[in-house]
Amino acid sequence: MIVNKITTGRREKVIENATVLGLTVIGTIPYDESLAKFDLVGDPLMGLPDDSPAVQEMVQVVGRLGL
């Protein structure tokens, strides 16, 4: 499972709840104001900067998936 728009204070609780349900969390994409702005105006998300928290976590997820 990949969790999207997660806030720092909620991450551990979401992972804990998923584990109780027998789900494996392979990534937690943090809420990212830059991503929200891109989405709002319809800009392609590929334009997000490399230092975007969402981009950095997606790189980690892709690696975990072996893609």
Structure description:
- This protein is 48% helix and 13% strand.
- The protein has 67 residues and is α+β, with helices and mostly antiparallel strands.
- The protein has one domain (2-65).
- 7% of the residues are buried.
- Tell me the series of helices and strands, N- to C-terminal: EHEHH
- Biggest sheet, open or closed, and with what strands and sense? 2 strands, parallel
Helix content: 40-55%
Q: How many helical stretches?
A: 3
Distance between the termini: 16 Å
Radius of gyration, CA atoms, in whole angstroms: 13 Å
Q: Compute the average pLDDT.
A: 91
Low-confidence stretches: none
Strand order of the largest sheet: 1-2
Tally of extended strands? 2
Strand content: 5-15%
How many individual domains?
1
Shape: globular
Structural class: alpha+beta
Based on the model shown, name its key terms.
67 residues, alpha+beta, two-stranded parallel ribbon, globular
Helix and strand topology:
Layout: E1 2-6, H1 11-20, E2 27-30, H2 33-41, H3 53-65
Parallel strand pairs: 1-2
Quick synopsis:
The protein has 67 residues and is α+β, with helices and mostly antiparallel strands. It has helices at 11-20, 33-41, 53-65; strands at 2-6, 27-30. Helix 1 (11-20) links the parallel strand 1 (2-6) and strand 2.
